[in-house]
Design a protein that fits this description.
The chain is of the alpha+beta class and 371 residues long. The protein is built from three helices and 25 strands. The strands form seven sheets. Strands 1, 3, 5, 6 and 7 form a five-stranded antiparallel sheet that branches. The longest helix is centred in the first third of the chain and has 32 residues.
Length: 371
């Protein structure tokens, strides 16, 4: 019996050693197939704002580090954002070794803002399809809605500066104020004034963080100044902007011939010039002096000029009326209906006309009716 227990115990030991050796032999290929690849891309948001105002332009900067320096390009995908829109496809790229910073410009459009999830993809090199990607999750940021006065121009900015301005007579009851301005981190495209009966933005350029525009407003002649406020993002206060209204002598239609000559007295002018020419002819016949010949000839040129038939043009419905004959000039009115009017002047691309409401401006020649 003692011998039986010893033999049985020896059998168990031999079996356990065999199983242990088998597990040991199988562990090596298992480890080789389950090797964990080291992380090669790290990223995070950099200096996110703690709160935002509705309408505000702000930056979203991604700070990233790639442990693989041999990368060809970067790409970003934004998803699950709320209450914001991307306003510039171009990103600002900066490298502060070993990190790189990519900055995008967004604008707040809603009452609730969620920063998007950002997936960054890194193409390792141009000869390979291998890529790395990493996603950081966005989150909600406190959003504040302003409660301004009526003279708020809808602009929020770090800086706002009027560069130049000019006021001209628009009609008997209104003036037109035109000014250009430059701003930093501003939503200039939203600029609007309650005091303007007509308004518009022209030549709007964005090169963030700076932007500039030219704006015009038709306002009452009773106003001595154009006053509005913008929201300063640095001080979190409304700042006044005051533009004095000093009416220039010229009209709004051109820089030189802004008040075209009316033709109501054309016949009287022709008669006067013809009479002067006749007197010059009589004096030249009797006195035979060159001076009288000049008195005779010059009025004839004037008569010939006034006798040229007036040219009329047909303007198509919806045509834009420009202050100046410039391709990117300020549009201050539209032609409501197709009509025919007198041509007051021409350039290569524009024709000067008088509207049915007596407003004078320029229309593009492409808006002249073909028949």
């Amino acid at each position: 019996m003692h011998f039986f227990f010893i033999a049985f115990f020896s059998f168990l030991l031999s079996m356990s050693d065999a199983l242990a050796q088998e597990d040991k032999n199988e562990s090596f290929p298992l480890q080789a197939s389950e090797q964990i690849q080291a992380k090669q891309l790290y990223q995070s948001f950099y200096e996110l704002p703690k709160k935002l105002f509705k309408g505000q332009v702000f930056t979203l900067t991604i700070k990233a580090l790639s442990t693989n320096a041999d990368y060809e390009s970067l790409s970003y995908d934004f998803s699950n954002a709320e209450g914001i829109m991307l306003i510039s496809e171009e990103k600002e790229h900066a490298l502060v070794s070993p990190y790189f910073y990519d900055t995008f410009y967004f604008q707040v459009t809603g009452n609730r803002v969620r920063i998007p999830d950002v997936t960054t993809s890194v193409i390792l090199n141009s000869n390979s399809d291998e890529a790395l990607s990493e996603t950081i999750r966005g989150h909600v940021i406190e959003t504040i809605r302003l409660n301004p006065e009526d003279d708020f121009c809808q602009v929020l900015a770090d800086e706002f500066k009027v560069l130049e301005y000019k006021t001209k007579q628009y009609d008997n009851q209104h003036n037109i104020v035109v000014f250009s301005a430059e701003a930093k981190m501003a939503n200039l495209n939203d600029f609007s004034l309650h005091s303007a009966s007509k308004e518009g933005i022209d030549e709007h350029e964005e090169n963030f963080p700076y932007s500039n525009f030219t704006y015009y407003a038709v306002v009452s002649k009773q106003l001595n100044e154009l006053k509005f406020v913008y929201f300063d993002l640095n001080t979190h206060r409304f700042q006044d902007v005051i533009i004095p209204i000093i009416v220039s002598n010229d009209k709004v239609s051109t820089q030189t011939d802004l008040a075209p000559t009316q033709n109501s007295h054309t016949l009287q002018k022709i008669m006067a010039a013809a009479t002067l020419s006749a007197v010059g002819l009589v004096l030249f016949i009797y006195r035979r002096k060159k001076f009288y010949f000049i008195v005779f000839i010059l009025p004839l040129f004037f008569v010939a000029k006034l006798s040229i038939p007036t040219e009329y043009v047909c303007i198509t419905e919806g045509s834009n009326l420009y202050l100046l004959p410039l391709q990117n000039g300020t549009i201050f009115e539209q032609v409501p209906l197709r009509f025919t009017t007198e041509s007051l002047g021409k350039t290569e691309d524009f024709t000067k006309i008088r509207m049915q409401n007596k407003q004078i401006g320029w229309v593009k020649n492409e808006n002249i009716c073909s028949n």
